[in-house]
Design goal:
The complex is a heterodimer of chains A (107) and B (438). With 107 residues, chain A is an alpha+beta fold. Helices cover 21% and strands 37% of the residues of chain A. Chain A contains two helices and six strands; from the N terminus they run E-H-E-E-E-E-H-E. The chains are: A alpha+beta (107), B mainly alpha (438).
Protein backbone atom coordinates (compact mmCIF):
# COMPACT_ATOMS: atom_id res chain seq x y z
CA UNK A 1 0.00 0.00 0.00
CA UNK A 2 1.02 3.57 -0.65
CA UNK A 3 0.00 6.91 0.83
CA UNK A 4 -0.13 9.70 -1.70
CA UNK A 5 0.20 13.12 -0.09
CA UNK A 6 -0.80 15.84 -2.52
CA UNK A 7 -0.49 19.58 -1.89
CA UNK A 8 -2.86 21.30 -4.33
CA UNK A 9 -4.56 24.60 -5.02
CA UNK A 10 -7.74 24.99 -2.92
CA UNK A 11 -9.87 25.79 -5.96
CA UNK A 12 -8.80 22.49 -7.61
CA UNK A 13 -10.08 20.30 -4.77
CA UNK A 14 -13.53 19.70 -6.21
CA UNK A 15 -12.40 18.60 -9.66
CA UNK A 16 -9.67 16.36 -8.20
CA UNK A 17 -12.26 14.74 -5.91
CA UNK A 18 -14.64 14.22 -8.81
CA UNK A 19 -11.91 12.70 -11.00
CA UNK A 20 -10.80 10.32 -8.24
CA UNK A 21 -14.40 9.29 -7.64
CA UNK A 22 -14.59 8.27 -11.28
CA UNK A 23 -11.65 5.91 -10.54
CA UNK A 24 -13.61 4.63 -7.53
CA UNK A 25 -11.11 6.16 -5.12
CA UNK A 26 -13.32 7.56 -2.35
CA UNK A 27 -11.40 7.55 0.92
CA UNK A 28 -9.25 10.59 1.57
CA UNK A 29 -8.31 13.07 4.29
CA UNK A 30 -8.47 16.77 3.43
CA UNK A 31 -6.60 19.44 5.41
CA UNK A 32 -6.26 23.20 5.02
CA UNK A 33 -2.56 23.99 5.08
CA UNK A 34 -0.23 26.84 4.28
CA UNK A 35 3.35 26.83 3.15
CA UNK A 36 5.77 27.76 0.43
CA UNK A 37 7.43 26.09 -2.52
CA UNK A 38 10.75 26.36 -4.30
CA UNK A 39 10.03 29.96 -5.33
CA UNK A 40 9.61 30.91 -1.68
CA UNK A 41 6.30 32.69 -2.05
CA UNK A 42 4.96 35.56 -4.09
CA UNK A 43 6.30 39.08 -4.25
CA UNK A 44 4.08 42.19 -4.29
CA UNK A 45 4.80 45.91 -4.43
CA UNK A 46 3.33 48.71 -2.34
CA UNK A 47 3.98 52.45 -2.34
CA UNK A 48 6.87 52.09 0.10
CA UNK A 49 8.46 48.88 -1.13
CA UNK A 50 8.13 45.20 -1.79
CA UNK A 51 6.75 42.50 0.43
CA UNK A 52 6.63 38.73 0.13
CA UNK A 53 3.74 36.45 0.95
CA UNK A 54 5.45 33.16 1.72
CA UNK A 55 2.66 31.34 3.51
CA UNK A 56 0.35 30.45 0.69
CA UNK A 57 -2.88 28.61 1.39
CA UNK A 58 -3.14 25.11 -0.06
CA UNK A 59 -5.09 21.92 0.45
CA UNK A 60 -3.35 18.72 1.56
CA UNK A 61 -4.89 15.43 0.41
CA UNK A 62 -3.85 12.14 1.98
CA UNK A 63 -4.97 9.09 0.05
CA UNK A 64 -4.03 5.49 0.84
CA UNK A 65 -4.34 3.05 -2.07
CA UNK A 66 -3.16 -0.37 -3.15
CA UNK A 67 0.10 -0.47 -5.08
CA UNK A 68 -1.66 -1.18 -8.37
CA UNK A 69 -3.73 2.02 -8.10
CA UNK A 70 -0.79 4.28 -7.28
CA UNK A 71 0.06 5.40 -10.80
CA UNK A 72 -3.55 5.99 -11.79
CA UNK A 73 -4.11 8.23 -8.74
CA UNK A 74 -0.88 10.15 -9.33
CA UNK A 75 -1.62 10.82 -12.97
CA UNK A 76 -5.24 11.78 -12.21
CA UNK A 77 -4.23 14.28 -9.55
CA UNK A 78 -1.54 15.68 -11.81
CA UNK A 79 -3.99 16.10 -14.65
CA UNK A 80 -6.80 17.69 -12.64
CA UNK A 81 -4.81 19.81 -10.17
CA UNK A 82 -2.64 21.42 -12.82
CA UNK A 83 -3.00 24.95 -14.16
CA UNK A 84 0.47 25.02 -15.82
CA UNK A 85 1.44 27.90 -13.55
CA UNK A 86 3.89 28.09 -10.69
CA UNK A 87 2.15 27.12 -7.47
CA UNK A 88 0.30 24.00 -8.63
CA UNK A 89 1.83 22.05 -5.73
CA UNK A 90 3.55 18.69 -5.21
CA UNK A 91 2.85 15.04 -4.52
CA UNK A 92 4.74 12.72 -2.20
CA UNK A 93 4.38 8.95 -2.10
CA UNK A 94 5.24 7.02 1.04
CA UNK A 95 4.91 3.30 1.84
CA UNK A 96 2.18 2.27 4.27
CA UNK A 97 2.76 -0.74 6.53
CA UNK A 98 -0.75 -1.50 7.61
CA UNK A 99 -4.31 -0.22 7.31
CA UNK A 100 -6.85 -1.20 9.95
CA UNK A 101 -10.58 -0.53 9.90
CA UNK A 102 -11.50 0.70 13.39
CA UNK A 103 -15.05 -0.72 13.50
CA UNK A 104 -14.09 -4.30 12.68
CA UNK A 105 -10.36 -4.48 13.27
CA UNK A 106 -9.96 -5.84 9.72
CA UNK A 107 -6.46 -5.43 8.38
CA UNK B 1 -1.06 60.66 -4.80
CA UNK B 2 0.58 64.12 -4.68
CA UNK B 3 -1.89 65.55 -7.19
CA UNK B 4 -4.72 64.17 -5.08
CA UNK B 5 -3.41 65.93 -1.98
CA UNK B 6 -3.01 69.17 -3.92
CA UNK B 7 -6.55 68.95 -5.28
CA UNK B 8 -7.81 68.23 -1.76
CA UNK B 9 -6.03 71.25 -0.28
CA UNK B 10 -7.34 73.53 -3.04
CA UNK B 11 -10.88 72.26 -2.48
CA UNK B 12 -10.68 72.79 1.27
CA UNK B 13 -9.32 76.31 0.84
CA UNK B 14 -11.95 77.28 -1.71
CA UNK B 15 -14.71 75.96 0.52
CA UNK B 16 -13.31 77.90 3.47
CA UNK B 17 -13.25 81.04 1.30
CA UNK B 18 -16.81 80.53 0.10
CA UNK B 19 -18.09 80.37 3.65
CA UNK B 20 -16.92 83.94 4.19
CA UNK B 21 -19.24 85.10 1.43
CA UNK B 22 -22.38 83.59 2.93
CA UNK B 23 -24.11 85.74 5.54
CA UNK B 24 -25.08 84.38 8.94
CA UNK B 25 -28.84 83.97 9.10
CA UNK B 26 -30.60 84.53 12.42
CA UNK B 27 -32.56 81.41 13.45
CA UNK B 28 -36.03 81.06 14.89
CA UNK B 29 -37.41 80.19 18.32
CA UNK B 30 -35.36 78.87 21.24
CA UNK B 31 -35.54 75.21 22.22
CA UNK B 32 -37.85 74.73 25.19
CA UNK B 33 -38.82 71.86 27.48
CA UNK B 34 -41.58 70.62 25.17
CA UNK B 35 -38.96 69.84 22.52
CA UNK B 36 -37.12 67.43 24.80
CA UNK B 37 -39.08 64.39 23.55
CA UNK B 38 -38.38 65.03 19.88
CA UNK B 39 -34.76 65.97 20.45
CA UNK B 40 -34.04 62.89 22.59
CA UNK B 41 -35.75 60.52 20.23
CA UNK B 42 -33.86 61.74 17.17
CA UNK B 43 -30.56 61.62 19.08
CA UNK B 44 -31.30 57.98 19.91
CA UNK B 45 -32.29 57.27 16.31
CA UNK B 46 -29.02 58.86 15.17
CA UNK B 47 -27.09 56.37 17.28
CA UNK B 48 -29.25 53.51 16.01
CA UNK B 49 -28.67 54.43 12.37
CA UNK B 50 -24.95 54.90 12.99
CA UNK B 51 -24.51 51.33 14.21
CA UNK B 52 -26.04 50.04 10.97
CA UNK B 53 -22.87 50.94 9.08
CA UNK B 54 -20.43 48.86 11.16
CA UNK B 55 -23.29 46.34 11.24
CA UNK B 56 -23.42 46.12 7.48
CA UNK B 57 -19.65 45.44 7.45
CA UNK B 58 -20.13 42.44 9.73
CA UNK B 59 -23.20 41.33 7.74
CA UNK B 60 -21.20 41.44 4.52
CA UNK B 61 -17.92 40.23 6.00
CA UNK B 62 -19.44 37.06 7.40
CA UNK B 63 -20.62 36.13 3.91
CA UNK B 64 -17.24 36.65 2.24
CA UNK B 65 -14.30 34.28 2.12
CA UNK B 66 -12.04 34.45 5.14
CA UNK B 67 -9.35 36.29 3.18
CA UNK B 68 -11.63 39.34 2.75
CA UNK B 69 -12.97 39.99 6.25
CA UNK B 70 -10.41 42.69 7.08
CA UNK B 71 -10.95 44.24 3.66
CA UNK B 72 -14.67 44.90 4.17
CA UNK B 73 -14.06 46.28 7.66
CA UNK B 74 -11.28 48.54 6.36
CA UNK B 75 -13.41 49.83 3.49
CA UNK B 76 -16.37 50.45 5.79
CA UNK B 77 -14.24 52.27 8.33
CA UNK B 78 -12.67 54.64 5.80
CA UNK B 79 -16.11 55.22 4.29
CA UNK B 80 -17.48 56.27 7.69
CA UNK B 81 -14.66 58.81 7.85
CA UNK B 82 -15.01 60.04 4.27
CA UNK B 83 -18.78 60.42 4.34
CA UNK B 84 -18.65 62.27 7.66
CA UNK B 85 -16.00 64.70 6.44
CA UNK B 86 -17.73 65.19 3.11
CA UNK B 87 -21.10 65.75 4.81
CA UNK B 88 -19.66 68.30 7.22
CA UNK B 89 -17.69 70.17 4.58
CA UNK B 90 -20.17 70.34 1.74
CA UNK B 91 -22.53 67.36 1.45
CA UNK B 92 -25.16 68.58 3.89
CA UNK B 93 -25.41 72.05 2.42
CA UNK B 94 -25.64 70.71 -1.13
CA UNK B 95 -28.45 68.40 -0.01
CA UNK B 96 -30.38 70.62 2.40
CA UNK B 97 -29.25 74.19 1.67
CA UNK B 98 -31.74 76.58 0.06
CA UNK B 99 -32.71 75.17 -3.31
CA UNK B 100 -31.07 76.48 -6.50
CA UNK B 101 -33.31 75.76 -9.53
CA UNK B 102 -34.24 72.34 -8.18
CA UNK B 103 -30.77 71.02 -8.92
CA UNK B 104 -28.79 71.45 -5.73
CA UNK B 105 -28.69 73.23 -2.38
CA UNK B 106 -26.73 76.46 -1.89
CA UNK B 107 -23.67 76.84 0.32
CA UNK B 108 -25.27 78.41 3.41
CA UNK B 109 -24.31 75.47 5.64
CA UNK B 110 -20.75 74.88 4.36
CA UNK B 111 -18.48 73.76 7.22
CA UNK B 112 -21.56 73.63 9.49
CA UNK B 113 -22.06 77.39 9.44
CA UNK B 114 -25.56 78.68 10.23
CA UNK B 115 -26.52 75.45 11.95
CA UNK B 116 -28.00 75.90 15.36
CA UNK B 117 -28.27 73.50 18.28
CA UNK B 118 -30.54 75.60 20.46
CA UNK B 119 -33.09 77.09 18.11
CA UNK B 120 -35.78 75.48 16.01
CA UNK B 121 -36.95 76.84 12.66
CA UNK B 122 -40.62 77.49 11.88
CA UNK B 123 -42.41 74.24 11.12
CA UNK B 124 -39.46 72.07 12.21
CA UNK B 125 -39.44 69.71 15.19
CA UNK B 126 -35.72 69.68 16.02
CA UNK B 127 -32.76 72.07 15.70
CA UNK B 128 -31.19 71.93 12.24
CA UNK B 129 -27.85 70.81 13.66
CA UNK B 130 -29.51 67.67 15.00
CA UNK B 131 -31.20 67.14 11.63
CA UNK B 132 -27.80 67.42 9.96
CA UNK B 133 -26.39 64.75 12.29
CA UNK B 134 -29.32 62.38 11.78
CA UNK B 135 -29.07 62.78 8.01
CA UNK B 136 -25.31 62.22 8.15
CA UNK B 137 -25.94 58.67 9.35
CA UNK B 138 -28.05 58.01 6.25
CA UNK B 139 -25.14 59.14 4.09
CA UNK B 140 -22.85 56.70 5.95
CA UNK B 141 -25.11 53.68 5.59
CA UNK B 142 -25.80 54.38 1.90
CA UNK B 143 -22.08 54.35 1.14
CA UNK B 144 -21.63 51.29 3.38
CA UNK B 145 -24.24 49.32 1.42
CA UNK B 146 -22.46 50.05 -1.87
CA UNK B 147 -19.31 48.22 -0.73
CA UNK B 148 -20.89 44.77 -0.69
CA UNK B 149 -21.37 44.69 -4.45
CA UNK B 150 -17.80 45.18 -5.64
CA UNK B 151 -15.83 43.78 -2.70
CA UNK B 152 -12.95 41.34 -3.36
CA UNK B 153 -12.01 43.19 -6.57
CA UNK B 154 -11.95 46.95 -6.15
CA UNK B 155 -8.93 48.32 -4.35
CA UNK B 156 -9.11 50.19 -1.07
CA UNK B 157 -7.59 53.40 -2.49
CA UNK B 158 -9.90 53.36 -5.48
CA UNK B 159 -13.07 52.83 -3.45
CA UNK B 160 -12.04 55.54 -0.97
CA UNK B 161 -11.50 57.99 -3.83
CA UNK B 162 -14.74 56.88 -5.48
CA UNK B 163 -16.86 57.35 -2.35
CA UNK B 164 -15.37 60.81 -1.74
CA UNK B 165 -16.41 61.99 -5.20
CA UNK B 166 -19.67 60.03 -5.18
CA UNK B 167 -20.76 61.64 -1.90
CA UNK B 168 -20.78 65.03 -3.64
CA UNK B 169 -21.88 64.13 -7.17
CA UNK B 170 -24.42 61.37 -6.45
CA UNK B 171 -25.55 61.20 -2.83
CA UNK B 172 -25.93 64.92 -2.13
CA UNK B 173 -28.01 65.63 -5.28
CA UNK B 174 -30.19 62.55 -4.64
CA UNK B 175 -30.88 63.64 -1.06
CA UNK B 176 -31.59 67.18 -2.30
CA UNK B 177 -34.02 66.10 -5.02
CA UNK B 178 -36.08 63.87 -2.75
CA UNK B 179 -35.79 65.37 0.73
CA UNK B 180 -34.17 68.78 0.25
CA UNK B 181 -36.91 70.33 -1.88
CA UNK B 182 -35.24 69.69 -5.24
CA UNK B 183 -36.45 68.28 -8.56
CA UNK B 184 -38.43 65.26 -7.37
CA UNK B 185 -40.15 67.23 -4.63
CA UNK B 186 -40.97 70.08 -7.03
CA UNK B 187 -42.06 68.29 -10.15
CA UNK B 188 -43.25 64.87 -9.07
CA UNK B 189 -45.91 63.57 -6.74
CA UNK B 190 -43.48 61.43 -4.82
CA UNK B 191 -43.12 60.03 -1.30
CA UNK B 192 -39.98 58.51 0.21
CA UNK B 193 -40.29 58.24 3.97
CA UNK B 194 -36.89 56.94 5.00
CA UNK B 195 -34.89 56.42 1.84
CA UNK B 196 -36.18 53.83 -0.64
CA UNK B 197 -34.79 55.85 -3.53
CA UNK B 198 -32.11 57.97 -1.85
CA UNK B 199 -30.57 55.17 0.20
CA UNK B 200 -31.43 51.75 -1.19
CA UNK B 201 -31.95 52.17 -4.92
CA UNK B 202 -29.11 54.69 -5.04
CA UNK B 203 -26.68 52.38 -3.18
CA UNK B 204 -27.69 49.32 -5.17
CA UNK B 205 -27.40 51.07 -8.53
CA UNK B 206 -24.04 52.52 -7.59
CA UNK B 207 -22.93 49.03 -6.61
CA UNK B 208 -24.17 47.72 -9.95
CA UNK B 209 -22.16 50.34 -11.84
CA UNK B 210 -19.02 49.37 -9.91
CA UNK B 211 -19.65 45.67 -10.52
CA UNK B 212 -20.12 46.28 -14.22
CA UNK B 213 -16.96 48.38 -14.41
CA UNK B 214 -14.74 46.12 -12.30
CA UNK B 215 -15.88 42.84 -13.86
CA UNK B 216 -16.12 39.45 -12.20
CA UNK B 217 -13.91 38.08 -9.49
CA UNK B 218 -11.67 35.18 -10.42
CA UNK B 219 -13.58 31.91 -10.82
CA UNK B 220 -10.99 30.52 -8.44
CA UNK B 221 -12.37 32.40 -5.43
CA UNK B 222 -16.04 32.68 -6.28
CA UNK B 223 -16.97 29.24 -4.98
CA UNK B 224 -15.59 29.80 -1.49
CA UNK B 225 -18.07 29.39 1.31
CA UNK B 226 -19.12 32.22 3.64
CA UNK B 227 -16.45 32.39 6.32
CA UNK B 228 -18.44 33.33 9.41
CA UNK B 229 -22.20 32.89 9.66
CA UNK B 230 -22.38 34.13 13.29
CA UNK B 231 -20.76 37.39 12.15
CA UNK B 232 -23.35 37.81 9.40
CA UNK B 233 -26.07 37.07 11.94
CA UNK B 234 -24.71 39.70 14.33
CA UNK B 235 -24.49 42.18 11.46
CA UNK B 236 -28.13 41.50 10.57
CA UNK B 237 -29.12 41.99 14.22
CA UNK B 238 -27.43 45.41 14.25
CA UNK B 239 -29.06 46.34 10.95
CA UNK B 240 -32.49 45.23 12.09
CA UNK B 241 -32.21 47.09 15.40
CA UNK B 242 -30.79 50.15 13.65
CA UNK B 243 -33.71 50.11 11.23
CA UNK B 244 -36.05 51.09 14.08
CA UNK B 245 -34.11 54.35 14.23
CA UNK B 246 -33.86 54.58 10.45
CA UNK B 247 -37.62 54.38 9.92
CA UNK B 248 -38.74 55.42 13.39
CA UNK B 249 -36.75 58.65 13.27
CA UNK B 250 -37.61 59.67 9.73
CA UNK B 251 -40.75 61.49 10.89
CA UNK B 252 -38.31 63.67 12.89
CA UNK B 253 -40.55 63.59 15.94
CA UNK B 254 -41.41 61.41 18.94
CA UNK B 255 -45.02 60.87 17.95
CA UNK B 256 -47.53 58.37 16.62
CA UNK B 257 -45.92 58.31 13.18
CA UNK B 258 -42.74 56.99 14.82
CA UNK B 259 -44.68 54.23 16.59
CA UNK B 260 -46.46 53.23 13.41
CA UNK B 261 -43.20 53.30 11.45
CA UNK B 262 -41.54 50.87 13.84
CA UNK B 263 -44.60 48.61 13.95
CA UNK B 264 -44.79 48.34 10.16
CA UNK B 265 -41.00 47.88 9.99
CA UNK B 266 -41.11 44.87 12.27
CA UNK B 267 -44.14 43.39 10.51
CA UNK B 268 -42.62 43.75 7.05
CA UNK B 269 -39.28 42.27 8.16
CA UNK B 270 -41.00 39.26 9.74
CA UNK B 271 -43.26 38.56 6.77
CA UNK B 272 -40.43 38.93 4.26
CA UNK B 273 -38.17 36.65 6.31
CA UNK B 274 -40.84 33.95 6.61
CA UNK B 275 -41.70 34.28 2.91
CA UNK B 276 -38.02 33.85 2.03
CA UNK B 277 -37.76 30.82 4.33
CA UNK B 278 -40.83 29.16 2.76
CA UNK B 279 -39.63 29.75 -0.80
CA UNK B 280 -36.15 28.52 0.09
CA UNK B 281 -37.65 25.41 1.70
CA UNK B 282 -39.71 24.71 -1.41
CA UNK B 283 -36.87 25.53 -3.79
CA UNK B 284 -33.81 23.87 -2.19
CA UNK B 285 -35.31 21.73 0.59
CA UNK B 286 -33.47 23.38 3.46
CA UNK B 287 -33.71 26.73 5.20
CA UNK B 288 -30.54 28.50 6.32
CA UNK B 289 -29.54 31.52 8.36
CA UNK B 290 -28.03 33.49 5.49
CA UNK B 291 -31.30 33.05 3.59
CA UNK B 292 -33.48 34.15 6.46
CA UNK B 293 -31.41 37.22 7.30
CA UNK B 294 -31.36 38.21 3.63
CA UNK B 295 -35.16 37.86 3.69
CA UNK B 296 -35.42 40.04 6.78
CA UNK B 297 -33.25 42.75 5.20
CA UNK B 298 -35.39 42.54 2.04
CA UNK B 299 -38.49 43.25 4.15
CA UNK B 300 -36.76 46.11 5.95
CA UNK B 301 -35.69 47.66 2.66
CA UNK B 302 -39.15 47.27 1.13
CA UNK B 303 -40.97 49.04 3.99
CA UNK B 304 -38.44 51.89 4.18
CA UNK B 305 -40.06 54.29 1.69
CA UNK B 306 -43.55 53.43 2.94
CA UNK B 307 -43.08 53.29 6.72
CA UNK B 308 -44.72 56.66 7.43
CA UNK B 309 -47.58 56.25 4.98
CA UNK B 310 -49.02 52.78 5.48
CA UNK B 311 -50.49 50.74 8.32
CA UNK B 312 -49.90 47.19 9.52
CA UNK B 313 -52.12 45.53 6.88
CA UNK B 314 -50.26 47.11 3.99
CA UNK B 315 -46.97 46.22 5.71
CA UNK B 316 -47.90 42.54 5.47
CA UNK B 317 -48.35 42.81 1.70
CA UNK B 318 -45.19 44.87 1.31
CA UNK B 319 -43.23 42.36 3.41
CA UNK B 320 -44.44 39.31 1.52
CA UNK B 321 -43.81 41.07 -1.81
CA UNK B 322 -40.33 42.09 -0.63
CA UNK B 323 -39.38 38.53 0.38
CA UNK B 324 -40.72 37.05 -2.84
CA UNK B 325 -39.33 39.60 -5.30
CA UNK B 326 -35.91 39.82 -3.65
CA UNK B 327 -35.58 36.03 -3.65
CA UNK B 328 -36.29 36.00 -7.38
CA UNK B 329 -34.03 39.04 -7.82
CA UNK B 330 -31.12 37.38 -6.05
CA UNK B 331 -31.48 34.16 -8.06
CA UNK B 332 -31.68 36.16 -11.28
CA UNK B 333 -28.61 38.28 -10.43
CA UNK B 334 -26.58 35.19 -9.54
CA UNK B 335 -27.62 32.80 -12.29
CA UNK B 336 -28.80 34.87 -15.22
CA UNK B 337 -27.41 38.37 -15.14
CA UNK B 338 -23.79 37.40 -15.81
CA UNK B 339 -22.76 40.00 -13.24
CA UNK B 340 -20.84 39.27 -10.07
CA UNK B 341 -22.78 41.21 -7.44
CA UNK B 342 -20.82 39.63 -4.59
CA UNK B 343 -23.28 40.08 -1.75
CA UNK B 344 -26.59 40.51 -3.55
CA UNK B 345 -26.67 44.27 -3.10
CA UNK B 346 -28.81 44.83 -6.18
CA UNK B 347 -30.89 41.72 -5.60
CA UNK B 348 -31.87 42.80 -2.09
CA UNK B 349 -31.49 46.59 -1.83
CA UNK B 350 -32.20 47.37 -5.49
CA UNK B 351 -35.20 45.11 -6.03
CA UNK B 352 -36.44 45.68 -2.46
CA UNK B 353 -36.12 49.45 -2.85
CA UNK B 354 -37.89 49.47 -6.22
CA UNK B 355 -40.72 47.30 -4.87
CA UNK B 356 -41.05 49.43 -1.72
CA UNK B 357 -41.15 52.69 -3.67
CA UNK B 358 -43.76 51.42 -6.09
CA UNK B 359 -45.73 49.81 -3.24
CA UNK B 360 -45.82 53.21 -1.52
CA UNK B 361 -47.49 54.50 -4.67
CA UNK B 362 -50.03 51.68 -4.48
CA UNK B 363 -50.87 51.61 -0.77
CA UNK B 364 -50.31 55.10 0.70
CA UNK B 365 -53.22 55.65 3.11
CA UNK B 366 -55.30 58.81 2.60
CA UNK B 367 -55.31 59.37 6.37
CA UNK B 368 -51.50 59.40 6.54
CA UNK B 369 -50.52 61.49 3.51
CA UNK B 370 -51.30 65.03 2.27
CA UNK B 371 -54.26 65.36 -0.12
CA UNK B 372 -53.29 64.30 -3.63
CA UNK B 373 -50.73 61.77 -2.39
CA UNK B 374 -53.10 58.80 -1.92
CA UNK B 375 -52.09 55.42 -3.27
CA UNK B 376 -53.32 53.74 -6.47
CA UNK B 377 -55.89 51.60 -4.67
CA UNK B 378 -57.63 54.77 -3.52
CA UNK B 379 -58.07 55.84 -7.12
CA UNK B 380 -55.15 58.29 -7.37
CA UNK B 381 -52.68 57.57 -10.17
CA UNK B 382 -50.46 60.63 -9.60
CA UNK B 383 -48.45 59.15 -6.75
CA UNK B 384 -48.12 55.75 -8.40
CA UNK B 385 -46.78 57.28 -11.61
CA UNK B 386 -44.63 59.73 -9.63
CA UNK B 387 -43.02 56.87 -7.75
CA UNK B 388 -42.26 55.00 -10.98
CA UNK B 389 -40.68 58.08 -12.53
CA UNK B 390 -38.68 58.65 -9.33
CA UNK B 391 -37.42 55.05 -9.37
CA UNK B 392 -36.39 55.19 -13.02
CA UNK B 393 -34.71 58.58 -12.63
CA UNK B 394 -32.80 57.32 -9.59
CA UNK B 395 -31.66 54.18 -11.43
CA UNK B 396 -30.46 56.11 -14.46
CA UNK B 397 -28.84 59.01 -12.59
CA UNK B 398 -26.97 56.92 -10.02
CA UNK B 399 -25.81 54.37 -12.55
CA UNK B 400 -24.53 56.82 -15.14
CA UNK B 401 -22.77 59.18 -12.75
CA UNK B 402 -21.24 56.37 -10.67
CA UNK B 403 -19.96 54.68 -13.80
CA UNK B 404 -18.41 57.93 -15.01
CA UNK B 405 -16.75 58.55 -11.66
CA UNK B 406 -15.14 55.12 -11.49
CA UNK B 407 -14.11 55.40 -15.15
CA UNK B 408 -12.32 58.68 -14.45
CA UNK B 409 -10.69 57.22 -11.32
CA UNK B 410 -9.46 54.26 -13.37
CA UNK B 411 -7.43 56.74 -15.44
CA UNK B 412 -5.67 57.96 -12.30
CA UNK B 413 -5.05 54.74 -10.38
CA UNK B 414 -5.41 50.97 -10.48
CA UNK B 415 -9.03 50.19 -9.60
CA UNK B 416 -9.05 46.40 -9.46
CA UNK B 417 -6.80 43.71 -8.06
CA UNK B 418 -5.22 41.19 -10.43
CA UNK B 419 -5.96 37.49 -10.15
CA UNK B 420 -2.95 36.54 -8.00
CA UNK B 421 -3.79 39.33 -5.58
CA UNK B 422 -7.43 38.26 -5.43
CA UNK B 423 -6.42 34.73 -4.57
CA UNK B 424 -4.05 35.71 -1.78
CA UNK B 425 -6.82 38.05 -0.67
CA UNK B 426 -7.12 41.77 0.01
CA UNK B 427 -6.61 41.28 3.75
CA UNK B 428 -2.95 40.46 3.22
CA UNK B 429 -2.29 42.22 -0.09
CA UNK B 430 -3.85 45.56 0.81
CA UNK B 431 -3.83 45.65 4.58
CA UNK B 432 -1.21 43.15 5.76
CA UNK B 433 -3.70 42.16 8.42
CA UNK B 434 -5.50 38.84 8.06
CA UNK B 435 -8.65 38.55 10.20
CA UNK B 436 -7.99 34.92 11.05
CA UNK B 437 -5.14 32.44 11.37
CA UNK B 438 -6.06 29.29 9.49
Amino acid sequence: MKMIIAIIRPEKLQCVKDALKALNINGMTITDVRGRGTQSGLKFTTRVGEFVVDEIEKIKLEIVVNDDQENAVISTIQKYASTDHIGDGRMFVVPVEKSIRIRTGDV
Amino acid sequence: MRTIIKVGVCLALSIAFLTLLVPNVAADRMVNIEDAGNISWILICTALVFIMTPGVALFYGGMLRKQSMTSIMAQTTIVIGIMTVSWVLIGYTLAFGTDIHGIIGNLEYVLMRNLSYDTIADGATIPNMEFMLFQMMFALITAGIVLGACIERVRFNAIAMFIAVWSVLVYAPMAHWVWGGGLFAQYLTVLDFAGGTVVHICAATTGLALVLFAGKRSERIMKDRPNNVPMAFLGCALLWMGWFGFNGGSGLAANGIAINAIVVTQISAAFAMITWAIIQYMHVGRVNVLGMIAGAVAGLVAITPAAGYVGPTEAIVIGIGGGLLCYVGVIFMRKKSGLDDALDVFGVHGIGGIWGSIATGIFALPAMVPAGYEGLIYGNTDLFLGQIVAVISTLVFCFVVSYLIIWVISKLMKVTMDETEEIIGADIIEHGEPSYRI
